[in-house]
Each structure stands twice: as structure tokens, then as C-alpha cells.
Amino acid sequence: MAKNTGSSKFRKVDVDQYDEDRYEDDINDAVVEQGPNENEVNSLLQRDKYEEALLHVLQNAPVGSKNQAVKDRAANLAVRVLTSFKGDIDQSIKSLDNRNIDTLMKYIYRGFETPSENSSAILLTWHQKAFAAGGLGSIMRVLTDRKRV
């Protein structure tokens, strides 16, 4: 038989703090607000350094930014790098770590949202190669991540 202690400590827990509608992502101190430098990416593309341009776009992705204009500009820049890429896609993707592969997948899916002429076919090729490197885990991480590009 349970004791009646008259304790009211359990009533001091604020259960509303665990409400999903009030959830806030952890604040990342190293958030990149400005996104990739467009001038630097353009100069790398003009010098045919496609891998370096891709790496610059992926490493400077404004993932935690709340400014939608910055995210749109970065996404357009990333799609432009992917569509103008000339070289071995497999080798470029194999040189990326898992975090950059996930960011690449985010940009691929973002490129599917706003297709342009022939971009869908190129993005499908990139998706196939990134899926081969990252596997299903990469797709699941991208689709379930709250931080969008």
C-alpha cells in the first residue's frame, strides 16, 4: 500500500517547456551568416577549379542562418557550381567527409525545388553519386534535420 506523503514537489515541474511547438534548436556559436563568397566562387569557376569551388560552397553553407535571402543566394550559387562542374564527380564526392556530403544532399534537394533548364538531370547524377557515397543515412539525416539550407 502506498504512503500518502502529501508531497507536492512533482507539481513544480514545468511541463510546458517540453512542448514541441516551443522547441528551439541549440544555438550554434559558429553559425555562418553570410554564406559562401560569390566572388571567390566565380573566380574559382573561371579558373576551372571546380572541386575547390564546391568545397568552398559546402563549408560556408548558411545552415543555421535565419536570413532566407542569404540561404537563397547560397543555394543558387551551389546549384550553379553543381551544374557547371566539369570533372570526375565520383572523385570529388569521395574526397568529402560525411558532413559535407549531407550538406551537398541538402543543396541537391534544394535545387530540385527550383528547377532550371537541364538542372534536374545534372542534379539527379549528383544525387546518385552522393547516395553511393553517403548511403541511406545521409538521406535520412537531410530529410529529418531542422536546419535547412
TrEMBL record:
InterPro entries documented for this protein: ARPC5, ARPC5_sf
Entry annotated with the keyword Cytoplasm: yes
Domain of life: Eukaryota
Record's keyword terms, sorted: Cytoplasm, Cytoskeleton
Similarity remark: Belongs to the ARPC5 family.
Classification via SUPFAM superfamilies: Arp2/3 complex 16 kDa subunit ARPC5
Cellular component terms per the entry's GO annotation: Arp2/3 protein complex
Main localization, broad class: cytoplasm
Protein's name in the database: Actin-related protein 2/3 complex subunit 5
Chain's role: Functions as component of the Arp2/3 complex which is involved in regulation of actin polymerization and together with an activating nucleation-promoting factor (NPF) mediates the formation of branched actin networks. Arp2/3 complex plays a critical role in the control of cell morphogenesis via the modulation of cell polarity development.
A GO biological process held by the record: Arp2/3 complex-mediated actin nucleation
Lineage: Eukaryota, Metazoa, Spiralia, Lophotrochozoa, Mollusca
Compartments in which it is found: Cytoplasm, Cytoskeleton
Organism from which the protein derives: Arion vulgaris
A Pfam family hit: P16-Arc
